[in-house]
Amino acid sequence: MTYCVAMKLDSGMVFASDSRTNAGIDNISKFGKMRVFTRVGQRVIVTLSAGNLSITQSALNLLEQRARTNPDALGIWNAISLYDIAGLLGEAMREVKNRDGEFLRQNNIDASASFIVGGQIAGETQRLFQVYSEGNFIEASLETPYFQIGEIKYGKPIIDRILTPATDLTEATQCTLVSFDSTMRSNVSVGLPIDLLVYRNDSLSVDIQQRIEDGDPYFSQLATRWSEGLRGVFVNLPKPDWLTPKI
Amino acid sequence: MTYCVAMKLDSGMVFASDSRTNAGIDNISKFGKMRVFTRVGQRVIVTLSAGNLSITQSALNLLEQRARTNPDALGIWNAISLYDIAGLLGEAMREVKNRDGEFLRQNNIDASASFIVGGQIAGETQRLFQVYSEGNFIEASLETPYFQIGEIKYGKPIIDRILTPATDLTEATQCTLVSFDSTMRSNVSVGLPIDLLVYRNDSLSVDIQQRIEDGDPYFSQLATRWSEGLRGVFVNLPKPDWLTPKI
């Protein structure tokens, strides 16, 4: 399983992905799910992927290889819009599924896969897209300034409570890590390390890129403080008057 | 969608279910999903149901009707063990699915359904079971003292953080309601009213039964205090030193 989240805020963007891949619970390995395509001053493009690893890896490899072998065609390094990049990623995924999908289905292997892709290309504002398994895609809006893929539900409530487009990048990063903590507590197949990338709006460079490994002191402290804080809030919640006299 | 949760603690049990049923997002109605079979001093049996409403209702109706028309056969009013009740419920569900399942499948209607059933029968300890859509079932243990069915993920992290078998019934009730609040915030198809039942171990009677309606002052206060409390904890979380100098 996988958990990835990306946020588009007034001040910039936060991207994060876990690194656990499993083909059955007895075959768990670590694979980064974040890819970064960057030329300082020109473009920062970040992809996060979930689902069948062979499908998402192949789709990204096709994109990279074609941009190298046929640099004049529309590709990741010359597209003038992130909208086009999202479309290219969807098409590449469809192509890989056309090639491999039938063989996977024959063995009941799930071929579904999805991407989050976002960042900024010079001449455009920062943008964020989610590419579905069918290759179609949507863009984040002011009302929904974030996307999640993979094991999304455990970590969603905290984001819904905290995040607005005005949230600053520090709080958004903290919110992201708390969301990962909640997810990892409830689903053992999502695990450290977490790849984290923070992008300041209009910087056109990767501002922070951090890998949070097992035993990371900041992440441990954050998780402990959050857990203790929640318990503190919980024990001070009001008690229902219809309950206390009888129980 | 539905959300139901039940907890088995040293001091008793807590059962809760929402009341929203939808057959498509344009056809939402309220149906209680909790049924209580009780004879004071003899038995308290509580069922919570999720999934296809026609399947779960029919299965319960079969159980009730057979206990009435054939009171000597093994049934809800004479079984000496909750284990047998869980088995009866699973069998009744299989029977209804045999009758209706093929017709539902013809129109791609999901026939899956599940139950939580728990309580106490005189002569036994309190017990809690989850009956799967296939009719097989499992019993709650010390390690996992609770079951959820329906839209389970949004409300799971808070239970995992708070609940142990030693949690008292007041805290377990608060935890249940916070879990519902988290679920309802993230999934509009889970909604008030909430049916809540609290059972004290060995009382062999329903100790608290409460319906929490829209605008319930206690539930509103709990949700507000929880939300404000979380924000309070959040804003006091430590900031990562690799982030603050740059962002």
TrEMBL record, chains A, B:
What protein name applies here? Peptidase
Q: Which InterPro entries match?
A: Ntn_hydrolases_N (IPR029055), UCP009120_prtse (IPR016545)
Supply the Gene3D superfamilies for this chain: Glutamine Phosphoribosylpyrophosphate, subunit 1, domain 1
